[in-house]
Amino acid sequence: MKIAVVGPGAMGTFFAWSLARAGLNVTLLDRDSTRARYLSEQGVSVATEESEPLPVHVPVETAAQATQQFDAAFFFVKAYDTVHAALEMQRCLSVGATVISLQNGLGNGPALAGVLEHCPVLTGTTGHGVTLAAPGACRHAGAGATVLGPHAEATRSDCNQVAALLSTAGIETRVVDDPELAIWEKVCINAAINPLTALLQVTNGALAEPEVCRDLMARIVEECVAAAGMLGVALDAADRLEATWSACAATAANHSSMLQDIRGGKRTEIEQINGAVVQVARSGGFDAVANRVLAELVLGLSKRPLE
Ligand code: KPL
At 146, which CATH number? Predict the structure, then answer.
């Protein structure tokens, strides 16, 4: 099976590295041809708290350069780039290729299904905490659950096949019937952790300290739970807040993806996380004020990063 991992960010690098290390036929797709050449030559590496960077060779190319037809593609581009990446990948996917989104934010499944109409689309989440230290070099700061399920055109057996593939690569994966539930569960975590770590410039673990933003984080999570409820996704606020503290502890040393984006001068996923929560809440006649204020602050920060 020929596997593509689309997007050489922290999570894409970690997944491509894990699949390649397990001996699977994986190619990393990068939009930047100069970086693709560099990564192909250097290999990609993952370091942990306990281990030095371990380089593994992974072919890296742009979608335009790809000559093979992939049977499965994991999308790890930023949520605002999903449609564009799907359009670029169209030409190098085999008929009926399985496409998988474990990206942050809301709307990735519909975006993929809208472009790749005849492909089974699987969506879900991953709780691994990974930081990109340099192109192709990431640091794994904590494991978290990976969960996926059918979004469009997909069967349980498609999901089991992908879960087995990831498990072979050491990424334990659970198959669920309703991935929207898992996505909203993760959105609660990202909505509370990502903007605050970006604004305060702290690690995920720092948010778990008793005096830091506890009431605000509870408020953010409660609003997410209320918005999810408007779409018929039933979540429990106390349970979600507990899961958010656990995520802070499990990825304590990690710099959230939003903090990494702000520090790298890049666009963040704030519109697909807190902004999307605000939109859903608004359509139900409710102002998710904590999420809205954070979204406005992070958008402001992206335009004028901290010194
Ligand atoms: O998903 C994440 C992110 O940084 O985007 C968490 C779970 C917060 C880990 O850093």
Answer: 3.40.50.720
The reply to whether 186 belongs to the active site is yes
pLDDT, tens only, 149-173? 999 899 999 999 999 999 999 999 9
Give the residue whose CA is nearest to atom 10 of ligand 1: 256
Residues 38 and 163 in one domain: yes
* Residue 247 lies in domain: 180-301
DSSP string, the chain: --EEEE--SHHHHHHHHHHHHTT--EEEE-S-HHHHHHHHHH-EEEEESSS--EEE---EE-TTT--S-EEEEEE-S-GGGHHHHHHHHGGGEEEEEEEEE--SSSSHHHHHHHHSTTS-EEEEEE--EEEEEETTEEEEEE---EEEEEEES--HHHHHHHHHHHHHTT--EEE-S-HHHHHHHHHHHHHHHHHHHHHHT--GGGGGSTTSSHHHHHHHHHHHHHHHHHTT----HHHHHHHHHHHHHHTTTPPPHHHHHHHTTPPPSTTTTHHHHHHHHHHTT---HHHHHHHHHHHHHHHS---
| pLDDT tops 70 at residue 4 | yes
Q: Is the CB of 136 under 6 A from ligand 1?
A: no
Number of domain units in the chain: 2
pLDDT beyond 90 at 306: no
Residue 306 lies in a domain: no
pLDDT tens digits, 109-130 = 999 999 999 999 999 999 898 9
**Minimal-distance CA residue to ligand 1 atom 5:** 257
> What tens digit of pLDDT does each residue of 71-106 get?
999 999 999 999 999 999 999 999 999 999 999 999
**Is residue 190 within 6 Å of ligand 1 at its C-beta?**
yes
